[in-house]
From TrEMBL:
The lineage of its organism: Bacteria, Bacillati, Actinomycetota, Actinomycetes, Streptosporangiales. Pfam families: SBP_bac_5. The keyword Methyltransferase does not apply. One of its GO terms (cellular component) is periplasmic space. InterPro entries: Peptide/Ni-bd, SBP_5, SBP_5_dom. This is Peptide ABC transporter substrate-binding protein. One of its GO terms (molecular function) is peptide transmembrane transporter activity. One of its GO terms (biological process) is peptide transport. Keywords: Signal. PROSITE patterns: PROKAR_LIPOPROTEIN. It comes from Planobispora rosea. Residues 1-20 form the signal peptide. Residues 97-462 form the Solute-binding protein family domain. SUPFAM superfamilies: Periplasmic binding protein-like II.
Amino acid sequence: MTRPRLAALTAVLAGTCTLAACSAAPDDGDPAAGRAFAPAVTTSVPAPTKNVEAVTWNLATGEPATLDPAMAGVESISTVVANMCEGLFTLGPDYRLQPALATGFAHPDPLTYVISLREGVTFWDGRPVTAEDVVYSVRRILDPKLGSSWIGWAVNLEGVEATGGNEITVKLKKPDVMIPNFFAMPAFYVVQKDFAEAAGRDFGTARGGVMCTGPYRYGSWTQGQDITLTRNDAWWNTEVKPRIKDLRFTFVADPSAQTAALASGDVDGQFIVPRAAHKQLAAKGNMLFGTSLSPTFLAVLNPDGALSDPATRQALRALIDYKGIIGSVYQGTAQPLRALVPPAAWGYGKEVFQAEYDKLPEPVQDLEKAKTLVGRSAKAKEKIVLAYTTASEEETRIATAIADAATQVGMDIELKPLTGEQFGAIFAAPQARAGLDLFLVTGYLDFPEPLSYYQFFTSSSFYNFPGYKNKDYDTAVFTAMVTEDPTARAREVAKAQALMAEDLVNIPIATQYVNVYYGPELTGLVPRQSYLITPWATALGGK
């Protein structure tokens, strides 16, 4: 994951109110105006009891570029593909692995995973799924010419082979405890080999279509208008009965138009609902929130200059108005963070993580402390260029607020606005990071394994942009990656977490809630971040 400021933080964003107070402003014309909107985390909803002929669902981020599951690393693609294509495993409500196209796996030694494939599974066209299809699908991801972001899982891969009619074996070059998580990710989504090869470059397009095994099959794609999926009544998973027959996706990207369509009922539901519409929609239907695996944080890009002094980084942490950001920018739909990885991503060793998390500094604004730190450091007074993406209104507001607070304490932050494309280039091209000191980014973990984020800051990682070097940090992360005992692994990860918090190679700000809205006649869907990789539409139905 450039706004020069002259006013104090307490006069930013709305011009006449503090960050904390802005969230309390009344909504003129809203029938719910004057009543407090207090978002709560939803962990369960009533199960559906009725079938529904058709549901229209909007993709908040617009029309997908493809429906190729290999590219399911973008929200607009993933939200659709998750209902069509399946991996060898899936994630349950607790984010734990559950069998899908595989029934289980053996782990006879640290370098070997032997996966047993489910018998009797067919593609939408009725042809059986074979071990050859599975191996083809995995190897297809590994072709750099395809350009799939999921290729990164295989950094320790030796090879994948069909070792039986209903068995594949994954061999590693060195142990990696994160590997089983990827069995439920698009890295292991299965497509039909013959169909994909025949389609060639058209695979995943409106013209070429896709061929998978999931609960909804590809129907049609009218570009610029909609995508339609139809229930796969021959789905292997007889324990789950999808209630919706036809699932239609629209591509309205304008927040005001999204709100109008949802409020009128022209669109039945949407993930990533505009924050300005939360209160209005909560009075009309199901406006629900869930904890996420997503952190928003400041990340160091340039370890030299102002940020070379720990006092500068400490001052940055102290000047952030965490309470105001949660209350105004996120309107209560987020929680402040003490560490990079949010608590919802502790997939194991929770007691260990909680105890160590509680030892970390509480995220509170302390402008006097920041002023003192800046007063003692010449480096802290040097200019800092902070990049952020204009594609996010929330991050625009946060960056602006940080720059204003920096002015108050004697720091000089120059804001650098970037388009979505420019911002994305930061992650791929060193030249795109030239002249930038710091950037504001929101990311998310694909599964609840803190290592999947902390590994990015080891000295050898491609994503370690500032060149952070700490031998103890590297040792803790690399030890954790080969430690299968969950409690022992959590202790090593917690060591790395504490070192990162002390060195402040990044400054955590908040973890946002996942949100979803669907109309009052629907029920069953609990908001979880796993909607990007699980068939969420199978939970939805009529009351």
